[in-house]
Specification:
- The structure is a homodimer of 298-residue chains.
- With 298 residues, chain A is mainly α.
- The first copy, chain A, has one domain: Farnesyl Diphosphate Synthase.
- Chain A has a two-stranded antiparallel sheet with strand order 1-2.
- The longest helix of chain A is centred in the C-terminal third of the chain and has 28 residues.
- The first copy, chain A, starts with a helix and ends with a helix.
- Chains A and B meet through helix 2, helix 6, helix 7 and helix 8 of A and helix 2, helix 6, helix 7 and helix 8 of B.
């Protein structure tokens, strides 16, 4: 099976799982408007990169993708919550997301804030349910990893710094942009990479190796995003492009130029792949995924 | 020791713990503006009712309050996040909270959204840390209970319905207001009530009893809040009063009148107390706390 076929196959598993988790009829109580907004944000056209990394990393250690699919769904809920809040007028003010109106455009600001909030809660709810993993020690380890990745020293902190440094180009050193990227994007990709060996109860040195891999992929992912903002077209991407320059966002490209950024992404790609090559052919599809992340055109 | 002295003593324990959890120097990474906003929201003058219920419920089953203080800190982070987001202009648009400018007034909207987001993550991070409870099964059970209470069928869902029904007084039946209160306020109070017996590994029938107790206290808490909105003064409360009527918020008082609402609160108080009377003198302070919640003047 080609990598693209596998990405699609895993997406299908995760989408079914997400549909199931987000089916309002299954839970008494959630108001329709809120569950509609949550589904709007989660269900649909996302590439499901983070779920793929979780499911494929776990598979390297022999875990069936159906068994890691709940953890993969949880990270997609977390990621979708962050997109909903990042798009808000007070934040990045984006009208389009994943080829659709962003959540506050399709609904309203209050609904979008609450949908993001409830998606964050749902991510932890899914992780903590006995169904996500039979071992409560694994469940609480995953919650701790994900909460740390999501919080003030991770995703939320990175978004704060991103906003603070917007329109202050002089303040921005390359190391600072890297730190923002590591927090804003890297932390959750790092979680996705370590989740696999954690679910598989792999030894600490494997977890360490996948943590390093996740860090590198996170940096590459965001730098590739900065490249795409300059070189991509918005119809293809499903969101506005050229926005970093207009808004004065911290961007590797703006700081280092296209050529150096491309080399930086290539180097990160190679370093990340080197870390998983020792797993042999079992790592082939994760290597493909790494290339896909670094070379994607949307 | 009087109930008031004990409330103060527990507050002190929780405040120290919160100070510790929110000390930026202890974590590498969080940007100062974000941790300042989080501290603004959490540290200070809150009554710490939810932490008290957790610590005192646990104590009834023999758990030292110092041992339940992390779980109590987590619920206060969750509660504070909800206040920060509820106060946003797109939501209830409140300028004052706990006698201080609300978070988006003291900082700005983007910072307040992120501070709320990061406080929610921190709540789960604290719960999932080995320090909160030695048994990972307890930790993941607490995460599951709190995430369910916080999410679409709990606090966030209740806030959504509260907003949806604002200015639609004709739609509001008493049962619907009760359902909103049960979700918006009751779910987290229910979590606070069951957390004690869960930490203590008490038998299922105790957990069930405390769940019922928490539900009743949640309804009483919000109805007492509706009463205070009419009868309280804003200087005393540290937030605006008379706002429900101005804003057309779903309110028990608006629906049933002052006298009937007072009787409703009294009945809930008695029913809640009846559930914990069987624990004898060990429950005396929780009974006092129940009375305090139902009869409070701020």
């Amino acid at each position: 099976m080609s990598f693209q076929d596998k990405l699609e196959q895993y997406s299908k598993i995760v989408n079914e799982r997400l549909n199931n988790h987000l089916m309002p009829g299954k839970h008494f109580g959630p108001p329709e408007r809120l569950s509609d907004a949550m589904r709007h944000a989660v269900i649909g056209s996302g590439k499901r990169i983070r779920p793929f990394i979780i499911m494929e990393s776990a598979k390297i250690f022999g875990v069936n993708p159906h068994r890691s699919a709940d953890v993969a769904s949880a990270v997609e809920c977390l990621h979708s919550y962050s997109l909903v809040h990042d798009d808000l007028p007070a934040m990045d003010d984006d009208d389009m997301r994943r080829g659709k109106p962003s959540c506050h455009k399709a609904f309203d600001e209050a609904t979008a804030i609450l949908a993001g909030d409830a998606l964050q809660s749902l991510a932890f709810e899914i992780l903590a349910r006995p169904g996500s993993d039979a071992d409560p020690a694994i469940r609480s380890q995953l919650v701790l990893e994900m909460a740390t990745a999501a919080g003030w020293a991770g995703m939320a902190g990175g978004q704060m710094m991103d906003i603070e440094l917007t329109n202050h180009p002089k303040k921005i050193k390359l190391a600072l942009i890297q730190r923002i990227h590591a927090m804003k994007t890297g932390a959750v990709l790092e979680f996705s990479a370590v989740a696999g060996p954690i679910i598989a109860k792999a030894a600490e040195d494997h977890i360490h190796r996948f943590r390093e891999y996740g860090k590198l992929v996170g940096l590459a992912f965001q730098a590739a995003d900065d490249l795409l903002d300059v070189t991509g077209d918005s119809e293809h991407l499903g969101k506005r492009t050229g926005k970093d320059e207009i808004s004065g966002k911290p961007s590797i490209v703006a700081r280092a130029g296209l050529e150096k950024t491309q080399k930086y992404v290539n180097d990160l790609e190679q370093a990340a792949i080197d870390l998983i090559v020792p797993y042999g052919t079992a790592a082939d599809d994760l290597i493909e995924a790494t290339r896909f992340i670094c070379r994607r055109e949307k």
